[in-house]
Amino acid sequence: MRTGADDEDQKIEEEQDSFNWMATKILKGVVTRYPTLDVFDEKIAHLTVVKKQISEMKQSVDIGWLRVNSVPLIKELEKTIDNWIKAHTEFLLHNTMRQIQNINQFITDISEGIKVVPKSNESEAEKAQLMAVMTHLRDVKMIKEKTLEQIDPMK
Amino acid sequence: MDEDFLVTLETNKSQLKEVSEKALGPVKESILPLQNQEAQNIKGRLARFGVVVQEFRIKFQNTLPYHVAETSQEIIDGAYNMISAFYIETCKLEEEARELNNLETLFDLQRSSYKQLKDCKSELISLKEMWDLVALIDM
After folding, report:
1. Is residue B73 within 8 angstroms of chain A, CB to CB?
2. pLDDT band per the 50, 70, 90 thresholds, residue A5
3. Rounded to the nearest 10 degrees, how much is the dihedral formed by the CA atoms of A153, B1, B7, B9?
4. Which of A1, A93, A121 to probe the B interface (max B CBs under 10 A)?
5. By CA distance, what is B4's nearest residue in A?
6. B13 at the A interface (CB within 8 A)?
7. Residue of B4, B8, B18, B20 for testing the chain A interface, max A β-carbons within 10 Å
8. How many CB atoms are closer than 10 A to CB B31?
9. How far is CA A59 from the centre of its chain?
10. Of B16, B31, B38, which is closest to A144 when you measure between CB atoms?
11. What ipTM goes with this model?
12. Residue-range domain boundaries for chain A
């Protein structure tokens, strides 16, 4: 006899399966655990402000009889800030590009996989073909909505 | 670059929608008779496996050492051997259950939970812990 707890377990298993299919198809090589885009945005904006403050620093300072040339320091700091901005933006770009690449591969696999449909399931080869087509249909069913949901935020 | 990127995303989105509609529409429709036929075969396999699991569960409950009347090294070793043997058998059945679950998902059938196998697995863990304690006390 099935209970509410069994149904709940089954839902969790199905959700896990769905994630696993996503993980093997669309999220292969993609980092999935990272802060929200707002956090990235905030950090990049902050780094840009710091970069501006650095560029506005005096290029030389007189301390009594000593003149300090701060250009090399400013340049080095600007380089460091640029590297940090680049690290943040390139992470997002590479991650998104990888995801797009996986989506393209998925579309190609499905398009190729459903080109030939078996006419019967009598021979082993036809059964194998039926299984292959059914697997593609299952993948589409499981992955389609979640993948479409992910495309808009990539913009 | 930005515009190209947006165009690529839009193209991906529409291609994915298009291929999904084709797969879940005309393609699915064309293989529906074969799917139903194969689903019947799978249902037969599921029923047979259900009986196997049920029988295994009964054998499991009748054979495994749930009670400790007396202890000796021989009894403890025997209990461990039995737990190991049933553990291996449970894992094999779980593997088959996973394969059948996969077929159920492929052919739109209700997914079986095989609760008996989950019960067997958790009881095996409890039994191992119990016999670890028995062995410790007997030392």
Report:
1. no
2. low
3. -30
4. A121
5. A155
6. yes
7. B20
8. 22
9. 41
10. B16
11. 0.73
12. 25-154
Lookup result for tokens 């000593």: A66
3-state secondary structure of A68: strand
The pLDDT > 90 percentage for chain B reads 68
Nearest to B35 among A100, A107, A134 (CB): A134
pLDDT digits (tens, 9 = 90+) for B52-80: 999 999 999 999 999 888 888 999 999 99
String of DSSP letters for A91-154: HHHHHHHHHHHHHHHHHHHHHHHTTS--S-S-SHHHHHHHHHHHHHHHHHHHHHHHHHHHHHHH
Contact (Cβ atoms closer than 8 angstroms) between residue A101 and residue A28: no
Which residues on adjacent β-strands are paired with residue A60?
A69
Does B15 lie at the interface with A, CB-CB under 8 angstroms?
yes
Structure tokens that stand for A48 in this block: 């840009």
Q: What pLDDT score was predicted for residue B64? A: 94
Of A14, A121, A137, the CB nearest to B38: A121
CB of B37 within 8 Å of any CB in chain A?
yes
* Domain boundaries along the sequence of chain B: 32-138
Rounded Cα–Cα distance for residues A21 and A24 (Å): 5
Asked if A141 contacts A110 with a C-beta cutoff of 8 angstroms, the reply is no
* A130 chain-B contacts, CB cut-off 8 A: 31, 34-35, 38
**CB proximity list for A92: less than 8 A, separation 6 or greater:** A37, A40
Give the tens place of pLDDT for each residue, A11-65.
Answer: 777 777 777 777 777 788 888 788 888 899 999 999 999 999 999 988 888 889 9
Q: What is the mean pLDDT of residues A58-87?
A: 92
The first and second tokens of residue A14, run together, are 């199905």
Q: For residue A1, what pLDDT is reported?
A: 52
